[in-house]
Amino acid sequence: MPAYFVVSVRIPASDDRQRYDEYIREVKPIAESFGGRYLTRSEHITALSDSWKPDRVIIIRFESKEQIVTWLASSEYQAIAGLRRASVAAEAIIVEES
After folding, report:
1. Residue 58 phi, psi (nearest 5)
2. Residues in CB range of 39: below 8 A, 6 or more apart
3. Are 90 and 5 contacting, i.e. CB atoms less than 8 angstroms apart?
4. Against a cut of 0.90, is the pTM above it?
5. 3-class secondary-structure state, position 70
6. Is the distance from CB of 81 to CB of 27 less than 8 angstroms?
7. What are the CA-CA distances from residue 19 to residues 43, 45, 76 (Å)?
8. Cα–Cα distance for residue pair 66/12, rounded to 1 Å
9. 3-96 under CATH 3.30.70.100, yes or no
C-alpha cells in the first residue's frame, strides 16, 4: 500500500543555511535509492491557519510504510540526519493510503 512521508520544516532566521542546504542536496538521492519519489519539496507555502506556518514542506511517496522505515533507519540516511537536526526544526508523519 503506498505511503507518504510528509515533513514540515521551520528554518531559523539565521543567514547560515549551509548545513541544511547540504542536507537538502544529499537526502534526495538517498530517499530515491530506497524507492522514494518526491512529489514536492518547496518553500512556496500559503498558510491557511495561524497555528501551522512551516517554512518548507516535503512530500515523498513510497510503495509502502516499510520502505520509509527502512530508509530512515539506513546507515546512508543516518550519516546525514545530523545536518538536519543541527540546522532546522522538523516534524514528520507517515500517511498510508486507505
Report:
1. -130, 135
2. 4, 59, 60, 61
3. no
4. yes
5. helix
6. no
7. 17, 22, 17
8. 32
9. yes
Confirm if 43 and 97 have CB atoms less than 8 A apart: no
H or E segment to which residue 73 belongs:
helix 65-73
49 to 34, 46, 53, 69, 98: CA distances (angstroms) = 34, 9, 7, 30, 26
Residue length, the chain?
98
- pLDDT tens across 30-78, in order? 999 999 999 999 999 999 999 999 999 999 999 999 999 999 999 999 9
Domain ranges within the chain, ordered by starting residue? 3-96
Beta strands in the chain (DSSP E): 3-10, 37-42, 56-62, 89-96
H or E stretch including 76? Answer: helix 75-85
If you search the block for the grid coordinates 511517496, which residue do you land on?
61
**How far is the C-alpha of 6 from the C-alpha of 66, rounded, in Å?**
15
